[in-house]
Amino acid sequence: MKQHVEHLATIARKPSRMILGLMSGTSLDGLDIALCALEGSGLDTRVRVLHFDTTPYDEPFRAEVHRVFAQKNIDFQHLVLLNVVIAERHAAIVNATLSRWGVPAGSVDLIASHGQTVFHAPRHFHALPDYPNATLQIGDGDHIARRTGIITISDFRQKHLAAGGEGAPLALYGDYLLFSKKEEDRFLLNIGGIANFTFLPGDGDPAKVFATDTGPGNTLLDAAARQFFGQPCDMDARLAGAGQVDEALLGRLKNHPYFARAFPTTTGPEQFSLAWAVHDTKYEENNAAGQHTDACNLLATLTRLTADTIAEGILRVPRTTERAAVYRSGGGAHNPMLTALLQEKLPGWEIQPMSALGVHGDAKEAVLFAVLANETVAGQTTPGAQLAGLPLVGMGKVSFPG
After folding, report:
1. Residue of 36, 7, 8 lying closest to 20 (CA atoms)
2. How confident is the model at residue 289 (pLDDT cuts 50, 70, 90)?
3. Where are the domains of the chain?
């Protein structure tokens, strides 16, 4: 084992590291892979994205994950088996992608693997006073390291929990290191299954930096498209565009107490499920009978719910400078109706794609986990340093190939 530790120390001392970031989000679209060249650490971090790709998941694989995803009652054996199956699937995708890119595995210093979230349980959700914040990601790092031959950093969220956080959103750390800018309040908005943003104050005060979930992003839209139309998502908002917003339902959904919680806070599909959205409404009964006009109205309403709660969350944040901008990423950034509604709710605001800051929006989360792995291996945290009220700590567990 000594040679592995020495090799890791050598990687830490290198002026530049090649790190492969892997991200599989709550939308279960597929595995995002970003090959990054990283120099320095902390606020001196510089990153170049050399390659990026997404390998979509096939429907049988999605169905296997959905058997345990955000479910309180599961087949525990299936969960245990998926911990290995997901890791092996991710490792196979890595090997195939590196081969396609013509990148030798030996040239990659580290893999930064987020894994697959299957359950997110902050205290405010489970409401059990004797139990802590908790979250679970599967897709074991040891299996990835063995099958790729590359040192793997994984299971990042547990250190955040151990330091007193909720395990999410972790984008805060990479966002702060890479994208802070004086004289512009920046909201780095990611619309995945759950929508979240990082606030980077233009006055440069690190005490004001925070990241928070705003509520549902694509999770309800995707669930409705699957259940009522047999489609994985509402591509280009065609279904929502054929419907009308049900104002009464929208008002009921926006009365959920989560939307009044103080920032920062986190949530997940466990809290915002389709069953919650349609419970005791005409949609629950009518759509079971296949009345697709009502289903389009439901999708229009859920799209407005996402846009409203994002915009209202952004407007709650005290401004520190006159200039403010939103930089969007994630699957929801491709939804034209959602983008138009956000601009309508935030008149006069600059709303730009994440690529305006030099990183493609689809690659952003994979890149940010590469940054976290870089900090774990090469970062030098000042004792007592904090960000968003939590200790600045190295996150992730190290898995050696041997």
Report:
1. 36
2. very low
3. 2-171+360-399, 179-357
